[in-house]
Design goal:
It is built from five helices and no strands. By secondary structure, the chain is mainly alpha-helical.
Length: 151
């Protein structure tokens, strides 16, 4: 079942653009926030941009825009609401792994890999059958074993 689009009130940015009249500017904010929400490895940045997308979406739905733009934005917001919970976990875990890979000390690397693995496992508790999380967990386990064995 797809995740519903959050209400405008759920965003800490609720109403921030309620007086905006430049639809193109709000579309740009929505597009940039959408991209950053799905790509940031910093969980706070990703979450902030997700909720900024929510605000921009709701504002656009109140503005005079073509039906074509309205449908496109709705489709993108539906996709964002669906993808964000898992993608933000994957991005955060990848960011942690990137830090680990830069370290020379095996113990510290493993500590960070364990932190990334815990984040993925948290995601699996919410979405136990999500293939992206399952695959990421398996790949991370391989990387942990590789690091432990010094191969």
């Amino acid at each position: 079942m797809p995740n519903p689009i959050p209400s405008r009130e759920s965003s800490r940015y609720a109403g921030q653009y309620s007086g905006a009249f430049d639809a193109q500017r709000i579309i740009d904010i929505f597009s940039d926030s959408y991209r950053i929400a799905l790509s940031s490895k910093n969980p706070e940045t990703a979450k902030d941009r997700f909720y900024l997308s929510v605000e921009a979406y709701h504002q656009l739905m109140t503005m005079r825009v073509t039906e074509e733009i309205r449908k496109a934005i709705k489709t993108q917001m539906d996709e964002l609401a669906e993808k964000f919970p898992v993608q933000s976990i994957l991005n955060e875990a990848e960011g942690i792994c990137e830090k680990a890979r830069k370290l020379k000390t095996i113990g510290k690397k493993l500590d960070l890999f364990d932190k990334a693995k815990a984040r993925i496992k948290d995601g699996l508790l919410e979405s136990p059958s999500n293939s992206l999380l399952i695959d990421a967990n398996a790949k991370l386990q391989e990387e942990i074993e590789f690091t432990k064995n010094g191969i």
